[in-house]
UniProtKB/TrEMBL annotation:
Subcellular location: Cytoplasm
Lineage of source species: Bacteria, Bacillati, Bacillota, Bacilli, Bacillales
Protein purpose: Catalyzes the ATP-dependent phosphorylation of N-acetyl-L-glutamate.
Family per similarity comment: Belongs to the acetylglutamate kinase family. ArgB subfamily.
UniProt-annotated site: Transition state stabilizer, residues: K8, K220
Top-level taxon of origin: Bacteria
Parts of the chain that traverse the membrane: none
Residue ranges occupied by any Aspartate/glutamate/uridylate kinase domain in the UniProt entry: 4-239
Catalysed reaction, written as an equation: N-acetyl-L-glutamate + ATP = N-acetyl-L-glutamyl 5-phosphate + ADP
Name the UniProt record assigns to this protein: Acetylglutamate kinase
Primary localization class, coarse: cytoplasm
Organism: Paenibacillus mendelii
Known EC number: 2.7.2.8
């Protein structure tokens, strides 16, 4: 079994993650499991932009990113949030090493198709798997901030779900775990809101079309659909509140929503 997995941790849940979450990661590391973390931090970016009086808006879930916004995105993601995660892992006995996609040209990016509307927002074209594997081989959990760079040295702001999906695809791991602030993809059935234990690509498309999947869930399911076309066997969406969520998600813990190939 592939003992590696990619975990995406959303800004919606980062600050609230209990120590037990990081202790779970340490336990996995001690047992030879090799996690790779890609993190977000959207709410912290918005908070800092507001403090600095810099306007920002989202276009179809992507932050409109000017050069000025890009400075703040990099400062918050690669600085504050990345180091906060590394620190919490250290405090809980897990060994980790923080990087942004710029370090070692970890994430090569190109402008998204609607760059004229959203500015310096990137799509991933290449992931330097050798650097990630090297960090893992040294016994560290890589913690990656979703900033990309192109051949000319231009930086890009990349949606963290998109970046995590690309890292999972390029590493060829079997599983990606998306940790967020809801227990999975929810659907109202007979007037009752339920967490779907699994969902197919066709069902996802239908729920996007009907508006039952909206907002921040859209980039997650899009990234999931993209990476299960390759080697990734399943993507699991779970809540960071659940005790030992990662151990449960990599086992058959019946947790969250599993997205698998049709
Ligand atoms: N069908 C759905 N089931 C669960 N959550 C959904 C659904 N559709 C949209 N969402 C929204 O997606 C949010 C998670 O995305 P987001 O806030 O961007 O989190 P993160 O910061 O973890 O990336 C949930 O809090 C919820 O408001
Ligand atoms: C292009 C784009 O929108 N980038 C995101 C990057 C952070 C992110 O995705 O964070 P979450 O996972 O917490 O949402 C942003 O600027 O907010």
């Amino acid at each position: 079994m592939d003992q590696r997995f990619v975990m995406k941790c959303g800004g919606s849940t980062l600050a609230a993650l209990p120590d037990s979450f990081f202790a779970d990661l340490r336990g996995l590391q001690e047992n030879g499991v090799k996690p790779v973390i890609v993190h977000g931090g959207g709410p912290a970016i918005s908070e800092t932009l507001a403090k600095l009086g810099i306007e920002s808006e989202f276009v179809n879930g992507l932050r409109k990113t000017s050069d000025e916004v890009l400075d703040v995105v990099e400062m918050v993601l690669a600085g504050r949030i990345n180091k906060e995660i590394v620190r919490r892992m250290l405090q809980n006995g897990a060994k980790s090493l923080g990087l942004s996609g710029v370090d070692g040209r970890l994430i090569t990016a190109k402008p998204v198709a609607n760059a004229s509307e959203v500015g310096f927002v990137g799509d991933v074209t290449e992931v330097n798997a050798a650097v990630i594997e090297g960090v893992m081989a040294m016994g560290y959990i890589p913690v990656i901030a979703p900033i990309g760079i192109d051949e000319a040295g231009q930086r890009y702001n990349i949606n963290a779900d998109t970046a995590a999906g690309a890292v999972a695809s390029h590493l060829g791991v079997e599983r990606m775990i998306v940790v967020t602030d809801v227990p999975g993809i929810m659907k109202t059935v007979d007037g009752e809101k339920r967490v779907l234990s699994s969902i197919s690509v066709a069902e996802i498309e239908a729920m996007i079309a009907s508006g039952e999947i909206y907002g921040g869930m859209i980039p997650k399911v899009r990234a999931a659909i993209q990476c299960i076309q390759g080697d990734v066997r399943e993507v699991v969406i779970v809540s960071g509140d659940e005790p030992n969520v990662l151990s449960k998600a990599i086992g058959d813990g019946g947790i969250g929503t599993r997205i698998v190939r049709d």
